[in-house]
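Many introductory courses stop at the sequence. We go one step further.
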Amino acid sequence: MTNETIARNYASTLFDLAQRHDGLEAFAGGMDVVVELLDKNPNFKLFLETPRVADKDKKELLKKVFAPVLPRPLLNFIQVTVDKRRQRLLGTIGEEFHALLDEHLGRAHVTVTLARSLDEQAMEDLSGKLSALLGKEAIPHVRVNPAILGGVQLKTGDTVYDGTLRRRIKQLRKQLVSAELPDGA
């Protein structure tokens, strides 16, 4: 099994656990805290991942650090990842958990590429239109890329909608180059 598949299985288990304890948002926030600490503190990450430190010591530190801020079942889950030697997958488990949560809540993340940035009102309008188009709550992630010249490119999941001026110009150029001229022209 690949690490991604393993992480997805752990995230699914965590999601089920969170639903049983009515804590989807609390568990999501707790995973964010854990992943952020791992990302920002390389010593903590090294401590958790090194085989030189006994699992008992790792679990004890996890309890001291996270007991005041995490729901108890989530802390137990993280300690189980140590028992199963899967603690290095905590970041990926967090990503997969958030994907399951978004699916459950009917949310879709959309990467929006524009030639220039939008003001706040235009962003709200865009978010509303994307939500209507997708049939679920759209969470836009805006990127500015002046190279597209104009228009918009949307990406959600594996689907890309390309309405950029740059693409239209390329299509027009291709049509003009491949066009046959009538005789005598």
